[in-house]
Design brief:
The complex is a heterotrimer of chains A (88), B (290) and C (475).
Chain A: E1 8-11, E2 18-23, E3 28-34, H1 37-54, E4 60-66, H2 71-85
Parallel strand pairs in A: 3-4
Antiparallel strand pairs in A: 1-2, 2-4
Chain B: E1 4-9, H1 13-18, E2 26-30, H2 40-53, E3 60-64, H3 73-80, E4 87-90, H4 96-113, E5 121-126, H5 129-133, H6 135-139, E6 147-150, H7 152-158, H8 171-183, E7 187-190, H9 199-212, E8 216-219, H10 225-231, H11 236-254, E9 261-262, E10 265-266, H12 269-289
Parallel strand pairs in B: 1-2, 1-8, 2-3, 3-4, 4-5, 5-6, 6-7, 7-8
Antiparallel strand pairs in B: 9-10
Chain C: E1 6-7, H1 10-17, E2 24-27, H2 37-47, E3 53-57, H3 67-72, E4 76-81, H4 86-93, E5 101-103, H5 108-114, E6 122-127, E7 129-131, E8 136-137, H6 152-157, E9 160-165, E10 168-169, E11 185-188, H7 195-198, H8 209-223, E12 233-236, H9 240-255, E13 262-267, H10 269-276, E14 282-288, H11 291-299, E15 303-305, H12 308-312, E16 326-329, E17 333-335, E18 340-341, H13 357-363, E19 366-370, E20 374-375, E21 378-379, E22 381-382, E23 397-400, E24 403-406, H14 411-419, H15 427-438, E25 450-455, E26 461-466
Parallel strand pairs in C: 1-11, 2-3, 2-6, 3-4, 4-5, 5-25, 6-9, 7-10, 9-11, 12-13, 12-16, 13-14, 14-15, 16-19, 17-22, 19-23
Antiparallel strand pairs in C: 7-8, 17-18, 20-21, 23-24, 25-26
Classes of the chains: A alpha+beta (88), B alpha/beta (290), C alpha/beta (475).
């Protein structure tokens, strides 16, 4: 699987969406800011990790700002950020 | 049953996840005009995930992909087809060949991924003068074409005329499309009414479309959905009459009569077919109401 | 005989009023987030060096954030209010105060003032117009806010009453909201508020599709409730979906030629439209929300100002809420027993209050809540709300985009709505539908310290609000 070669973003800061930023790094570093961190923080982090694994991303810095997005939306935004970060 | 179809922008999560609660029979997830070129990729993934993970209830899903003269349409089909929307709405179809190109690629993807052949149908969006003139050949281009859809905004631009509320400028296109679709024995859907705040205007426009023979009508605003559903639903009188027809047939059969009449009128095959359709729709509405 | 009650400035008024340690000062909220008066008074009061004051304000907005410093400095130690927006609310939730905030309702506050449960030493009344003897009105002047209904019990029962105006007019000011007979001192200042924060230009109905669907459903519920007939009375909140419901209700009333009796409440331009279109005989107005409402209360004799006592006091011989047919209300959470929270947000921080929620729900024949199935991934229906603002016994219907839940105590209403083809569902099912989409949220952690008591309209504490233990939002 290709590495993340450049900084890329996906999604928006609108309600029910998530904004994802990805950039090249050594190892995997995930940070999450969420309006529903108390209720869903652990679940969202797990989903982010899952998508990165599915996409075969092992080295990247990923920042997610979540505005109450459902899992399927978070998945979509992370996947799009990965594709863009790979220059696809 | 597809009386109303509501367009939802393909890159707006809030709309996609709530769409199935807006009262529309079908939803059109839009990857074309509602999505800027820079966001085509993200909308595609978002719409795919919505199909894949969300329970959209009894709502039928249609995806408007990009037209075949773009770099996007094949990627759209690659992403969407495995998650089986009911229909692909293909924009800017000018001739039978355009529909065939899409059909062939869909077949190729189906074979590659082992998907059921021909499951996802095609609905050409007719929005050019050429498309209108070729309506019947488009409607019969392939088995996959299940309905025609009139797009009046682009069409009036192509006609170099103004789009009006009265719609005289699209009258020909409307009747031509209905004729072509009915001749090909497929459904046909009318263009959206674009003034979101005109509650009377939408009713007049929908009633006119229904009178011309359209199966249903698209909408760009949830506010129009209820009116469209109401206009394209059989009336209580229609339903009562349909049951009377079916009852008359039952009695005639019992009595071994070949010729059936009701209220001194001959009941022939088209009347029976219409009665069956009406009852099917009434039952479906009843179930939806439940 | 005194020929004028006008004093030199606020400093003199504060001195004359004789504010001492431990006293209670009161304010009204008709100038909403544009109010300068509470801050300017508290600044003068603080300069005198008094401590341990109670502030009794009908509502507190973000503009009143300087109150936080007065609390930190010990000038203010107790707050009594009916609504608190998020700036002060967050500070309180983080444990700002030793004494819990006392939340009342718009009816409970005047009731407790009249009954002497919450005596006021000095009331400060922001008045968009006043004369030298203290006759005052909210209808005129550059800072016009319309009704002054929430200030009336304070004027009637405080030991001293100070009117503060930026529009001193010739005696006598006619068409007063509060007469001179209650007023001790009058202070003229340059500006009592920022007109942009006092009233909104126009209140617009929502364009949010989910809001519109809920509003349409709500109007259908009213139509089929059996209450929508000649003589109908109605109140609605100023939230997007509730306003849209009023618009759809108006369409139905006009189409079916139904002549209602009165519209009540905080009044918006939409209620004025309904009055002018003949949907109602009159509007009874305790608070104006926009310019159109202010203009209407000034010009239209059928648009009548009422006091908060008359509006909603449970200890009055009667109040208008007791004659109300239908009220449309919002919620941040509703639980499966139909209890409603409008005090705290999804992270447990105070960001609101009952206002007239509990009063109208208790009084109205049909109390309806309009709320989306989920908001930013949080289901609206929970097993137990984080704070009970309005008890479930007073709530009849919850309208969401996924269906209408009817309180099981209203079997007849549920049947009526089902017969009309409306999607009636069990409230537990709404919870299940939402959680299937959002996943199940973890319960909010609560602190050990009580930061607020929610006092129902009869004076009993129906719930307590705890502090929020750690800074939320960031993992």
């Amino acid at each position: 699987m290709a590495d993340i070669i450049k900084r890329a973003t996906a999604g928006t800061m609108e309600s029910s969406d998530a904004y994802v930023e990805i950039s090249p790094a050594e190892g995997l570093e995930i940070s999450l800011e969420s309006v529903v961190a108390k209720q869903f923080g652990t679940a969202i982090e797990a989903v982010i990790g899952e998508v990165l694994q599915e996409c075969g991303v092992k080295n990247a810095k990923v920042t997610v700002i979540d505005k109450g997005a459902l899992d399927c939306v978070i998945r979509a935004r992370v996947e799009t950020a990965v594709m863009r970060g790979r220059g696809e | 049953m597809r009386r109303s179809m509501l367009f939802l922008p393909g890159n707006t999560p809030n709309m996609l996840i709530n769409g199935s609660r807006l009262g529309s029979d079908a939803l059109i997830f839009d990857l074309e005009d509602a999505v800027s070129p820079a966001e085509k990729d993200s909308a595609r993934v978002l719409v795919r995930n919505t199909l894949r993970y969300m329970d959209l209830g009894s709502c039928e899903i249609i995806v408007r992909i990009n037209s075949i003269d773009t770099d996007y349409w094949k990627k759209d089909i690659d992403a969407i087809l495995p998650y089986s929307p009911a229909l692909i709405l293909l924009p800017k179809v000018n001739c039978a060949q355009d529909a065939l190109i899409a059909d062939e690629y869909m077949t190729e993807v189906e074979q590659k991924l082992g998907l059921e052949a021909g499951k996802v149908k095609l609905m050409p969006l007719i929005e050019t003068a050429l498309g209108v003139e070729n309506a019947f050949s488009i409607a019969t281009a392939t088995e996959r074409v299940a309905a025609l859809f009139l797009g009046a905004e682009d069409l009036t631009a192509d006609l170099r005329c103004k789009r009006t509320k009265g719609g005289a400028e699209i009258n020909y296109a409307r009747t031509r499309l209905v004729m072509a679709a009915r001749a090909a024995n497929i459904d046909v859907y009318d263009t959206p009414f674009t003034d979101v705040n005109d509650d009377e205007g939408i009713r007049v426009d929908a009633e006119y479309a229904k009178a011309l023979g359209f199966t249903g009508k698209a909408s760009i605003s949830p506010r129009h959905v209820d009116v469209i559903n109401e206009v394209f639903s059989p009336s209580e009188r229609d339903i009562a009459y349909a049951y009377e027809v079916m009852e008359a047939i039952r009695i005639a059969k019992e009595q071994g009569r070949g010729v059936i009449s009701l209220h001194n009128k001959m009941i022939d095959a088209p009347i029976v077919a219409r009665a069956q359709q009406t009852i099917a729709m009434a039952e479906e509405m009843g179930i939806r109401r439940g | 005989m005194k020929s004028s009650k006008v004093v030199k400035n606020l400093q003199e008024a504060v001195a004359l009023a004789g504010i001492k340690d431990g006293m209670t000062v009161s304010f009204h909220h008709h100038l909403r987030n544009g109010d300068y008066v509470l801050n300017m008074v508290m600044e003068e009061v603080a300069k005198t060096g008094v401590k341990d004051l109670t502030v009794n304000a009908s509502s507190l907005f973000d503009i009143h954030a300087p109150l936080i410093d007065h609390i930190k400095n010990g000038v203010v130690t107790t707050i009594q209010t009916n609504y608190m927006s998020s700036k002060i609310g967050k500070a309180v939730s983080n444990g700002l105060m030793d004494n819990p905030v006392q939340f009342r309702t718009h009816g409970g506050r005047p009731s407790d003032i009249v009954l002497g449960r919450t005596p006021i030493d000095v009331a400060f009344i922001a008045a968009p117009s006043a004369d030298c003897m203290g006759n005052c009105s909210g209808k005129y002047g550059k800072s016009a806010c319309g009704s002054l209904g929430y200030a009336v019990p304070d004027a009637m029962h405080a030991k001293k009453v100070v009117v503060i105006t930026d529009n001193l007019v010739q005696y006598p000011l006619l068409d007063w909201s509060i007469p001179e007979s209650y007023i001790d001192y009058v202070v003229a200042v340059d500006e009592i508020g920022d007109i942009n924060g006092i009233v909104s230009g126009t209140t617009k109905i929502t364009r949010d599709p989910v809001g519109l669907v809920m509003a349409q459903r709500a109007a259908q519920v009213i139509k089929h409730s059996g209450l929508l007939k000649d003589g109908f009375s109605f109140q609605t909140g100023a939230g997007g979906a509730t306003l849209a419901a009023a618009k759809f209700l108006k369409d139905i009333m006009l189409r079916e030629n139904i002549k209602g009796s009165f519209g009540l409440g905080g009044i918006t331009g939409y209620m004025v439209d309904m009055l002018e279109a003949g949907c109602f005989e009159s509007l009874l107005d305790v608070q104006c929300f926009d310019l159109k409402a202010v203009e209407s209360i000034r010009k239209n004799p059928k648009h009548q100002e009422i006091s908060s006592i008359h509006y909603a006091s449970p200890s009055a011989r009667s109040a208008v809420v007791d004659s109300l047919d239908v009220v449309l209300l919002g919620a941040t959470e509703v639980d499966t027993d139909f209890n409603v929270n409008v005090h705290t947000d999804s992270n447990g921080y105070i960001m609101g209050g009952s206002g007239g929620h509990s009063d109208t729900a208790a009084g109205a024949k049909l109390a309806m809540i309009i709320a989306p199935l989920f908001r930013a991934r949080l289901p609206i229906v929970t097993d137990r709300v984080n704070c009970i603002s309005t008890p479930g016994q007073d709530v009849d219907v919850l309208v969401t985009q996924a269906g209408i839940a009817v309180n099981p105590k209203n079997k007849e209403l549920a049947l009526r709505l089902k017969d009309a083809g409306l999607p009636v569902v069990d409230i537990h099912e709404l919870k299940a539908i939402a959680e299937k989409i959002t996943g199940q949220p973890k319960p909010l952690p609560k602190g050990d310290k009580t930061v607020a008591n929610v006092i129902w309209r009869d004076g009993t504490v129906i719930d307590t609000i705890k502090n929020v233990p750690t800074e939320g939002g960031v993992l």
